[in-house]
Amino acid sequence: MLMEQASNERKRMTQMRRTRKKRRLPRLLLPLIVLAFAGWVVIVRPFAPHAERNALASDASRPAGGAPSETVAAVEKPPATANVPKPPLAPVKVYYNGLAKDGKQVALTFDDGPDGVATPKILDILKANHIKATFFIVGKQAKAHPDMVRRIVKEGHAIGNHSWSHPDFGSLSTQDAKKQIEDTQDEIEAIAGVRPTLFRPPYGALNDDKKAAVRDLDMAIVDWSVDTRDWAGTTPPNILKLVNKELYPGGIILQHCAGEQEHLSNTIAALKQLIPALRKQGYAFVTVPKLLHLPDSQS
Ligand SMILES: [Zn+2]
Fold this sequence. Notes:
CATH architecture of the largest domain: Alpha-Beta Barrel
Bound molecules: zinc ion
Protein name: Polysaccharide deacetylase family protein
Region (Disordered): 1-20, 57-87
Radius of gyration: 41 Å
InterPro entries: Glyco_hydro/deAcase_b/a-brl, NODB_dom, Polysacc_deacetylase_ArnD
Strand content: 5-15%
Domain NodB homology: 104-286
Pfam families: Polysacc_deac_1
Number of strands: 9
CATH topology of the largest domain: TIM Barrel
């Protein structure tokens, strides 16, 4: 019994010594940590932030064009947000028709003129019927027939821009495409005092770069909803059938006012029948700017 007690006592003493040793360890570690921290504050810390401040100071005082040091370049690195790509521009709208909710409206459009043969005949028919239409004019044709441009405006029709020389815009640089449009704008404005708000690309097609160029010129791109294919010699009854089939309220009808005379005689004959036929259906004839709620001319 005594032996057992003595043995237990030894075990207890050994355990107490071990615990004391364990307690002594933190007591030794603490001053070491304090010393290490004090050393960092006194010796290391002053250098790090100063290096950054010096770099900024030298950046501010660096003369323009001076070669940046490596440190400065590192500081100048733009924030991550600067690398985020800009959102794409909204797609450029191409108008094919007006709004059906505006009622039974239709816009007659005549491209490629003016000329001295078909254009005056078309103007006579429109005048006799008290109809305002829209003429998408080619710049060099305007230059050749300025009186016709003035007559179109005087009789209350709208004018759109249809390029200077009717090239396929797909084969032009954006710069050349812009020049085709701007030269025509200038010519029309010089002749008739209006600067069109509408552009219709020759053959109706434009890639995105050129669409953006038209938007930069503050113009609307206008195609059509009904192509009479009058330029291809479609007969007057077929033009009427085609319009009957494809026209709906807000529609824009494509015809021509310059080109081969034989073909345009069909255009003229068809127009004389088309006007009463559409009136009978309840259609009102409006210009494209009116149909699309756009101004007639750029201010
Ligand atoms: Zn054309």
